[in-house]
C-alpha cells in the first residue's frame, strides 16, 4: 500500500504502549497503532523493548527479515539504518526489532536516548512496545515517552497493574523528573471488552474502569476473533480484513493524532423483544 | 417454555460490581502509600514491638502477631502478644 508521506518536518513524538500485566494485548496494540498511524501517512517506527522475548517481529510479519537489532545498535555493532526493517505493506512504517538472546540489562538509558534522538529526526511517531512488568525493560520503554497508552482489560489484576503503571508514568519518567515539563499524556485503551458479559453484570463497564483509573479513554477494543487470526499470519489487525477490533483501533489511532472521534462501543446492541423471548432458550 | 423461561431465570450475581468495589478499596490504599516498600512496615513494627516488650518480659519471635484489615471507611491493626509468664502467674 502506498501512502502519502507527510512532507513537513517530523513530529518526533514518542508513544509508549504499556500495561504492567502481561497478555492484555500490548504487542497487538503496538502493531495495530503503528500500522494505523502509518496508514494515515505518518512516518512511523515501532520499537520492541521486550529484550529476550522478541515477539513484535512475528506480529508484524517480518520475523524472517531480522538481521540486526535494537541492542546491536545500542552497543555500536550496527548502524540504526541497518537494523530498521521497512514494512512491505506500508512504506511509511518501519520496525526496530529487539534481541532474542540478550537480557534487559543490555538496555542503557544513554543508548535508548541516542537512538530515540536519531529516530525523532526522521519519524512522526515512535511507538515503544513495552515488555510486561515494571522492571528495567518497561522502565526504559516509558522513560522518554511524550505520551502513554495503558492497555487494560476489564479485569481486576489488569486494572490494578494499570494503576501502578500510571503511578510510575507520573513519577519515574524524564518528563516527571524535568522541572516545568508537561507531564506524560496518559490514556487507557480498554481491550478484550465483551459487551454481552458487561450486560450480564459479569464484566466491569468502560465507566467502571475509567472511574477507578481516572485517565482519559483512548478507545475500546472488543474481544474479537480477528485478533488471533491476524497474529497467525503476521498482519497488524488494522491491515487485515475489516473487523470490530480493526475499526476500534482505527478510531483510537485517529484520536491519538488529535482528532475527536465519537466513542463507539462495539457490540453494544440491545437485544430486541423477539430475541429476548426466544434467544435465551438457545443460548 | 421459552416464552416464560426468562421470568423464572434467577438474576445472575453482579460480580462486576464486586470487582469494582474491591479495586476501589485496594487502590485507595496502594495510592496513599504510593507503591511497594511503604506497605512493608508491618514486619518492622512487629520487630519494634518485640524489642520494646523484651525490655521487660522475655518473649520469642513467634509471640507477637500483627494483622491488618483494610476497609473502605476504616482500617484496623490487630496486635496479639503472647506473654509466656502471665499464664503461670495467674494459674
Automatic annotation (TrEMBL), chain A:
SUPFAM superfamilies, A to Z: P-loop containing nucleoside triphosphate hydrolases (SSF52540)
CDD domains, per database record: MinD
Regions that span the bilayer: none
Domain CobQ/CobB/MinD/ParA nucleotide binding, chain residue ranges per copy: 15-237
Protein role: ATPase required for the correct placement of the division site. Cell division inhibitors MinC and MinD act in concert to form an inhibitor capable of blocking formation of the polar Z ring septums. Rapidly oscillates between the poles of the cell to destabilize FtsZ filaments that have formed before they mature into polar Z rings.
Record's subunit section: Interacts with MinC and FtsZ.
Family of the protein in this entry: Belongs to the ParA family. MinD subfamily.
A family per Pfam: CbiA
Name of protein: Septum site-determining protein MinD
Leader sequence residues: none
PANTHER family attached to this UniProt entry: SEPTUM SITE-DETERMINING PROTEIN MIND HOMOLOG, CHLOROPLASTIC, SEPTUM SITE-DETERMINING PROTEIN MIND HOMOLOG, CHLOROPLASTIC-RELATED
Keywords: ATP-binding, Cell cycle, Cell division, Nucleotide-binding, Septation
UniProtKB/TrEMBL annotation, chain B:
Gene Ontology annotations of biological process type: cell division
Pfam families assigned to the protein according to its UniProt record, in alphabetical order: MinE
The protein's role, per its UniProt record: Prevents the cell division inhibition by proteins MinC and MinD at internal division sites while permitting inhibition at polar sites. This ensures cell division at the proper site by restricting the formation of a division septum at the midpoint of the long axis of the cell.
Entry keywords, A to Z: Cell cycle, Cell division
NCBIfam families xrefs: minE (TIGR01215), PRK00296.1 (NF001422)
The protein, known as: Cell division topological specificity factor
Entry similarity comment: Belongs to the MinE family.
